[in-house]
Design a protein that fits this description.
The chain is mainly β. It has strands at 10-12, 19-21, 26-27, 33-34, 75-76, 94-95, 101-104, 107-110.
């Protein structure tokens, strides 16, 4: 459908109510057709803020080691402790009483 150009038409400003040429009115973001004096551009505060993901996780994260789980502290993580270990109910692992241990590089030999 084609429309007339409106070069001879007269229109009324939706905000102030004065009469202007149709071609002088501008369409506002609210949908009103207003004159140049009444025209207000849309404020950036009316746009929703752009939300970006907050990076919280580390790419190569490593858990912190509790003070009781350092080398030589006597804590063993076991799934099913047998009768040789003393279970203490520790959530990290079970403490144990070893009779004798001989340690070499790369292997552990236990002598009972």
């Amino acid at each position: 459908m084609s429309y007339a150009s409106g070069k001879y038409a007269i229109a009324i400003c939706d905000r102030c109510g004065f009469q202007y040429k149709y071609t002088q009115l501008r369409k506002e973001w609210t949908g009103f057709r207003v004159c140049a004096e009444c025209y207000e551009p849309k404020s950036p505060q009316l746009e929703p803020p752009r939300t970006l993901a907050d990076p919280e996780a580390l790419q190569y994260a490593r858990p912190s080691v509790p003070a009781s789980a350092v080398a030589g502290s006597g804590v063993v993580r076991t799934i099913d402790p047998n009768a040789m270990t003393t279970v203490t109910g520790d959530s990290i692992g079970s403490s144990f009483d070893g009779i004798e241990a001989t340690i070499s590089v790369g292997t552990v030999t236990v002598t009972v």
